[in-house]
Prior knowledge:
- The chain is α/β, with parallel strands linked by helices.
- The protein has one domain: Rossmann fold.
- Helix content is 46%, strand content 15%.
- Strands 3-2-1-4-5-6-7 form a seven-stranded parallel sheet, with helices on both faces.
- It is globular, with a radius of gyration of 17 Å.
- The structure holds nicotinamide-adenine-dinucleotide.
- It comes from Undibacter mobilis.
- InterPro entries: NAD(P)-bd_dom_sf, Sc_DH/Rdtase_CS, SDR_fam.
- Pfam families: adh_short_C2.
Amino acid sequence: MLLSGKxxxxxxxxxxxxxxxxxxxxxxxxxxxxxxxxxxEAGAKNAAAQxxxxxxxxxxxxxxxxxxxAAVASVLKSFGQIDVLVNNAGITQAIKVWDIDEKSWxxxxxxNLKGVLFLSQAVIPHMRSRKSGSIACISSxxxxxxxxxxxxxxxxxxxxxxxGLAKAMARELGNDGVRVNSVTPGLIQTDxxxxxxxxxxxxxxxxxxxxxRLGVPQDVANIFLFLASxxxxxxxxxxxxxxxxxxx
Length: 248
Ligand code: NAD
């Protein structure tokens, strides 16, 4: 098993059809103990319970530094160590740039970008002291192609910020044995976009995807597994596309 003896925190893992929960299931199946953190506390606990009694679910708003610190302290108390952090929590909003007001801008940056900083900062002292750790951050094809299919320009900006933040952390933490990487999914079928793609729009989207299908959460979970495991021990600062070839 690829993650035997390892422990992992996954943010945004409460949704049963989401990328976070697929990642949690994959990690658990590979021997990891998993802590699911989510704004939805009941959902996080329920998701963890589905994985088995050795896993935990914790309510945590990643936009709040104190909440991130408290959640990480609680995971350390339960597991004794943290080997992997998957920064997966995120929100989107499909509006045009001329409709973005300050409140929307701030909320999208806070969850998608500031949350990555706060949760990473919460685990970094522990990982540095152990000289070991893997942090994987979710970005999006929206950051790369300029404009999401379903997200607005504020979402593209936040997800592009994640790429810069992750690379800077990778550079600063490499000497401490901590790796930091990003994953850029294309269009993955989850609750974030459920019911938002018309059949007409789907045909248009598929025309731009060489593999001719939308992604599923497991497609992204598999990449997080690679980044969490020692298979990627010489990989840091990388950006891995999971988009069916959308950017070729
Ligand atoms: P999802 O809605 O199922 O998952 C997002 C999770 O984040 C939810 O469980 C939600 O409760 C949680 N969350 C929201 N705000 C939070 C906060 N402040 N603190 C803690 N948790 C919070 O959707 P998903 O598609 O699985 O999204 C997971 C990640 O993947 C997101 O960051 C999203 O931007 C990113 N992403 C998704 C796609 C896609 O096509 N689905 C593509 C690229 C990137």
